[in-house]
Amino acid sequence: MKLLLNEIIESIRIALEQVNQHRMRSLLTALGVIIGIIAVTLMGTAIKGIDIGFRNSLDMLGTDTFYVEKWPWRDVGDEWMKYRNRPNLQASYAKDVNEIIQATPDSTLIIAVPTVWSRQRIEREDREISGIDTMGTNADYPFTDNATIEHGRFFTDAEAVAGRNVVVLGYDVAQALFPEGHEQAIGKTVKIRNIKYTVVGVYAKQGSFLGMQSFDRNVIMPLPSLRKFFVSRWWSSATIKVQKREEATIADARDEIIGAMRRVRGLEPGEENDFEVNQSDAIEEQLGPIKQGLALAGFFVTGLALFVGAIGIMNITFVSVKERTKEIGTRRAIGARRRSILMQFLTESSMICLLGGITGLGIAFILKSVVAQFAPDFPLVMSGELILLAVLISIGTGVVSGFAPALQAAFLDPAEALRHE
Fold it and tell me: Is the pTM of the predicted complex or chain greater than 0.85?
């Protein structure tokens, strides 16, 4: 055991000396491994980041929440005309669904609330912020939402029914209009299309969905107020947000929603649904092909780069065996075992790959940091498991590519090796 340990230490020492003596050659030889490790690391970082960002975003959408809408959350392809011709959903459907829920024994659902969206520019004195998603709803909306109010409150039922000009600001909107402090916004007035609204609440920061759509650039107001000034009742389609009970299954809750909506829509048995019940799992299905595409592209680039790198390392190890044939003969003549020679060249090829892998990891980390600077909300996660995988791939590439030349070196005849010029 001690002898084996000494052989390993000696092989590492010789490998480091060889790499140091031929630094440029080693660097060029490891180029394929560097590219391969960069590819596999960035691919893994992106996929892991998407997974974590998606899980975090599900909490924002609500895993127990359904969205009844005119359009599905998927690519409809050539069927877009079919969905476009569906009748709009009315906000009043929420009230009808709630009556059905209350009349249903052991209902799997808790409540339904209407939401209608518009995009507006919001001003306060000399400050303004445009492209803000402005939502109209009722006072029950917080029952379907996981966001928390940082300052102030949500509007009351009386304010919602009366269509008072009150708003709850998202974090980024409050930050843009009230940089002196979000608590200062409570009771102040903002303008939307020159109509004054009193701020009654400010949301805590929520983040964005996969770094793309921010949940902090929202403004929420009573639905009658939104209808009165910004959105026609007849030309826009509402979204009915439905909250299921925690203990109910997704399938049961979905079936109950579909049944309730069919009654509300007055659909006859056999008629196709003219609405869509969307949930976060639909987004997961949309993300699946993206992740698979990233993985396939990454594996292709990684595999190609590692293959080229392995060929280069195999070639350079054959050259090294050729250059050091006399040295091998000397070592064999003074008693070195074939195992020692084999281990020495395998260690050298593995060392080159490992150094290439570490270099690739360093470059990938720099690239990840650059991307994080320009897109701070996009989730990128370089996990410990990914780093370990990259290291193992590097060492494995070194062992595979160096095995043939190392075997050739181990079985050289000592006498012929000593005569080699």
Answer: no
Residue 275 has pLDDT above 90, yes or no: yes
CA distance 123 to 264: 39
- Tens-place pLDDT, residues 152-199: 999 999 999 999 999 999 999 999 999 988 888 999 999 998 899 999
Sign for the pseudo-dihedral over CA of 242, 266, 138, 83:
positive
pLDDT, tens digit, for every residue of 76-87? 788 888 888 899
Q: How many helices (H) and strands (E) does the chain have?
A: 14, 12
Nearest alpha carbon to residue 274 among 93, 63, 116, 75: 93
**What residues pair up with 203 in beta bridges, in sequence order?**
149
CA 206 to chain centre: 16
Tokens of 217: 């650039």
Q: CA-based angle 187:189:194, to the nearest 5? A: 160
Beta bridge partners of 196: 191
Instruction: Supply the DSSP symbol for 324.
Output: T
317-352: b (≥16 Cβ within 10 Å) or e: bbebbeebbebbbebbeeebeeebbbbbbbbbbbbb
Residue type at 297? A
**Given phi > 0 = left and psi -120 to 50 = alpha, else beta, which region is 75?**
beta
Is residue 395 packed enough to be buried (19+ CB in 10 Å), middle (13-18) or exposed (0-12)? middle
Enumerate the β-bridge partners of residue 113: 241
Q: So what's the pLDDT on residue 69? A: 93
Length of the chain: 421
Cα gap 28→368, rounded to integer Å:
24
pLDDT band at 112 (very low <50, low <70, confident <90, very high): very high
The DSSP letter of residue 152 is E
Are β-strands 239-244 and 109-124 bridged in parallel, bridged antiparallel, or unpaired?
antiparallel
**Amino acid at residue number 87:** P
CA angle 183, 228, 199 (to 5 degrees): 5
